[in-house]
């Protein structure tokens, strides 16, 4: 009897390999069709200082009332907040996003109170000697009622991108792309149904048809942005796609898979749109923080010409006026030749008597010789112009000061929202304060008793001579107050320092400084004490951010309020200022990112600045500087 052999065991290895190949052959085309990743690069953008505050404004854009809400949250945040979207298992839904590092944290140490006398009864603001109707103060466009979604969207955009949101709204182009949008909608729907239809048996022809239509739509959209770019036969493609989508919808598919795919495509599209907005905001910030090429050329040409030209005759120099205390001395901190020239020209043009007017320009070593040559070539009536190398003076005479570089007035973007009325439109303000360099002005001008400090983005339209006759009493700094921001709203930034929570912030731009009272109250010494607590000399970003609390604390009891009509602020970011209000203001302050000498400046406000621009044909034509 023959023994029967046991049946051979079937090998499962080849069968699994074949199944794996079939499975991969189905996934590869799908991944090839839908895996469209946006190109991504990480930018090294420097985060800007930002303050998010609750609003207690119940009257106008420029006045505030009510008490400070103790439950308000205040923060200084970076330029963006990244949110991670949920990613499905389908690889086509993955979207790459650039990450932005958070800004350096600023410590909030305990500070002793500044060495100042007890505050006296509040001084009434000085009234500007110009007539102005009461209605002129309402210079903002009427507010449009927004729903909660619009308010939240606008708030998140301005918190992340700042004034770029305002600029993009004003420069938004009307696109004629109705057909292009329809093509995109068809493409999204076809992509959502394709994976489910491809799994159905007997639907191979429909699968191939969907695939072909998807590829044709992608090809057309890659070459078309508006309807005018579309080919003439696009209507036939739209009809074929509609037919394919209708057939796909008639199939029995899992609606959850289609819904999940649509959500993945939506998230991917939102991420891509946010990335392109971040790219645009980066280019915008690069444009507003970079000196124009023509201005750089002008500085270089002036510097070269300074060393080629013969020095001025000492007898013709107005140096004898520079240290006479009885003269009217204006101080300007600037690294921009044309900006400083406009400030001086507008001031003397509005002044009746300029014989005793002296302008002191504090600039850095790089622009010193360009400034010297420009103001030696151009005269401004009978006034005298003194160009000073700030960095050299500090380095030679005050080596103990750690901050030897020239810092222009610091600007902080303040976002104010109303906690009681969340649907009310939030507003963004740019608060400009003294930089670290301002606190050494009394040490530089030891012979002077009183000065007026002008920012280099100011245009003077009225005679400021009346400011020299002000009796500020025991006060040091005559400034326009900004009561939309109070110290109590900055308690997280100010730490445990003793301060008056109801004290208003103030703005630089046009400031009357009593140098004798400054020295009497030891303001510079108090500044150095606060700097050791708030500032970090090793980190420039932290050092510049410390300018806000230091400036507000140094003058909280030494501030003399000037009339609000003295300076109209916001011409560097606010598109809603009326022309008649700007023309009737004593001075215009272009605080914000959109400076008048930049191409990105607000066009309606540039004319006030260009009116006082000194035209030097030789150098400005060579460098193609547009007036």
UniProtKB/TrEMBL annotation:
Bilayer disposition of the protein: Single-pass type II membrane protein
Pathway it works in: Glycan metabolism; pectin biosynthesis
A molecular-function term among this protein's GO annotations: polygalacturonate 4-alpha-galacturonosyltransferase activity
GO cellular-component term (any): Golgi membrane
Positions of region (Disordered): 58-125
Localization per record: Golgi apparatus membrane
Source organism superkingdom: Eukaryota
GO biological process: cell wall organization
Ranges of Polar residues composition bias in the record: 66-96
Keyword Glycosyltransferase in record: yes
Enzyme class: transferase
Enzyme Commission number: 2.4.1.-
Biased segments, Pro residues type: 100-116
Entry-linked InterPro entries: GAUT, Glyco_trans_8, Nucleotide-diphossugar_trans
Keywords recorded for this protein, A-Z: Cell wall biogenesis/degradation, Glycosyltransferase, Golgi apparatus, Transferase
Family from the record: Belongs to the glycosyltransferase 8 family.
Protein name (record): Hexosyltransferase
Protein source organism: Panicum virgatum
């Amino acid at each position: 009897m023959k023994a029967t052999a046991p049946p051979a065991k079937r090998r499962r290895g080849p069968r699994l390999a074949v199944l794996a190949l079939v499975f991969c052959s189905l996934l590869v085309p799908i991944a090839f069709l839908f895996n469209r990743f946006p190109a991504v690069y990480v930018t090294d953008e420097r985060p800007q200082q930002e303050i998010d505050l609750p609003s207690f404004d119940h009257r106008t854009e420029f006045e505030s009332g009510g008490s400070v809400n103790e439950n308000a949250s205040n923060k200084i945040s970076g330029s963006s907040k990244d949110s991670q979207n949920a990613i499905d298992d389908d690889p086509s839904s993955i979207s790459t996003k650039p990450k932005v590092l958070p800004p350096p944290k600023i410590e909030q140490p305990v500070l002793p109170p500044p060495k100042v006398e007890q505050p006296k009864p509040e001084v009434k603001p000085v009234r500007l000697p110009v007539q102005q109707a009461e209605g002129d103060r309402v210079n903002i466009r009427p507010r449009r009622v927004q729903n909660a979604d619009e308010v939240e969207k606008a708030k998140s955009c301005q918190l992340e991108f700042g004034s770029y949101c305002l600029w993009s709204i004003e420069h938004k182009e009307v696109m004629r792309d109705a057909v292009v949008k329809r093509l995109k909608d068809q493409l999204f729907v076809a992509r959502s149904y394709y994976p489910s239809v491809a799994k159905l048996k007997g639907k191979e022809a429909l699968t191939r048809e969907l695939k072909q239509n998807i590829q044709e739509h992608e090809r057309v959209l890659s070459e078309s942005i508006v309807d005018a770019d579309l080919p003439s036969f696009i209507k036939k493609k739209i009809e074929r796609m509609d037919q394919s989508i209708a057939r796909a919808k008639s199939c029995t598919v899992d609606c959850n898979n289609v819904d999940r795919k649509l959500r993945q495509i939506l998230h991917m599209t939102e991420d891509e749109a946010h990335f392109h907005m971040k790219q645009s905001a980066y280019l915008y910030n690069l444009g507003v923080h970079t000196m124009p090429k023509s201005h750089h050329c002008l500085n270089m040409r002036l510097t070269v010409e300074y060393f080629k030209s013969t020095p001025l005759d000492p007898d013709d120099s107005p140096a004898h006026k520079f240290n006479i205390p009885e003269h009217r001395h204006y101080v300007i901190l600037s690294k921009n030749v044309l900006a400083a020239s406009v400030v001086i020209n507008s001031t003397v043009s509005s002044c009746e008597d300029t014989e005793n007017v002296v302008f002191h320009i504090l600039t850095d070593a790089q622009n010193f010789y360009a400034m010297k040559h420009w103001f030696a070539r151009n005269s401004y009536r009978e006034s005298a112009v003194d160009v000073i190398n700030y960095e050299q003076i500090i380095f030679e005479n005050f080596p103990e000061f750690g901050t030897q570089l020239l810092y222009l007035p610091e600007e902080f973007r303040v976002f104010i929202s109303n906690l009681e009325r969340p649907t009310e439109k939030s507003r963004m303000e740019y608060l400009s304060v003294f930089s670290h360099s301002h606190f050494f002005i009394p040490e530089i001008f030891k012979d002077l008793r009183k000065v007026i400090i002008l920012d280099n983005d100011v245009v003077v339209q009225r005679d400021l001579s009346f400011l020299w006759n002000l009796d500020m009493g025991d006060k040091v700094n005559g400034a326009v107050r900004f009561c939309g921001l109070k110290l109590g709203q900055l308690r997280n930034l100010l730490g445990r320092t003793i301060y008056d929570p109801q004290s208003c912030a103030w703005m630089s731009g046009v400031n009357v400084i009593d140098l004798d009272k400054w020295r009497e109250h030891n303001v510079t010494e108090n500044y150095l004490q606060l700097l050791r607590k708030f500032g970090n000399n090793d980190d420039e970003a932290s050092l510049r951010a410390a300018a806000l609390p230091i400036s507000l604390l140094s003058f909280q009891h030494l501030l003399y309020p000037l009339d609000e009509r003295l300076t109209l602020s916001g011409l560097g970011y606010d598109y809603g200022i009326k022309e008649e209000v700007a023309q009737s203001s004593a001075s215009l302050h272009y605080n914000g990112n959109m400076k008048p000498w930049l191409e990105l400046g607000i066009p309606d406000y540039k004319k006030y600045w260009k009116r006082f621009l000194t035209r030097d044909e030789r150098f400005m034509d060579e460098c193609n500087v547009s007036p």
